[in-house]
Write a structure and sequence with these properties.
By secondary structure, this protein is α/β, with parallel strands linked by helices. The protein has ten helices and nine strands.
Length: 262
Amino acid sequence: MESARPPAVLSVENLVLKRKRDGKVLVEDLSFALDAGHTLGIVGESGSGKSISLRSIVGIQPSVLGREGNVACTPRTAMVFQEPATALNPTMRVGAFVARTWRMHHPRTTRAEARAAAVSLFDQVGIIDPERRVRAWPHELSGGMKQRIMIAAALATDPEVLLCDEPTTALDVRVQAQILNLLRRLVAERNMAMVFVSHDLAVVSVVCEQVLVMRNGRMVESGPVGQVLNNPSAGYTRELLAANLTRRLEIREPRQQKDGVG
């Protein structure tokens, strides 16, 4: 007798997002589900509804929007945003930022234990000399390093689901490849589910098994990444591929090493 299949850690059914003032629908009937350890990419041009859909999962969509439909996700859901510089507090050392996040989710720990946890998380996300780096200020770090800090802060919540809202868009291609490789490794090591939003199918192909393509607030195509890349059924998907796939597929997985400058 087969054992019961565990429930999805994230389920979105018939999600609708509307502007409250005029009822304009920005996202219509979006549905998907994700199991532990699996990855989904949501792809589309700017304004397609992908980022606000992701934010609505954790209830941080703009207040001018109303939400309909059913969203069920584990309380242990964390989010990594596109621009880490706006998420980090410029008046707080980055180690203190991660340690504070750790204590919020592990309230019985001491300050010393939280700091030790921050050092460990810095090490896990590939930051060399973490004991020194925890004392750095945000302005002392590069964009890639700041994004590693934000990933460390997300991991401080012990997430079962990691939501990534275009976390590599502002990074150069070399650092982007390093962050993508890091995310792929963390998903495997922690058995997390991950939703990765991007405008770029090639970037999604590096870290995701499944892909969902959105246009004008609606899903136009979904399926395994290989199937969608090699045999897209929607004309819009073919347009996205033609726009930048050749260039972006030149991303190469970096060597398995820690980066102190990215």
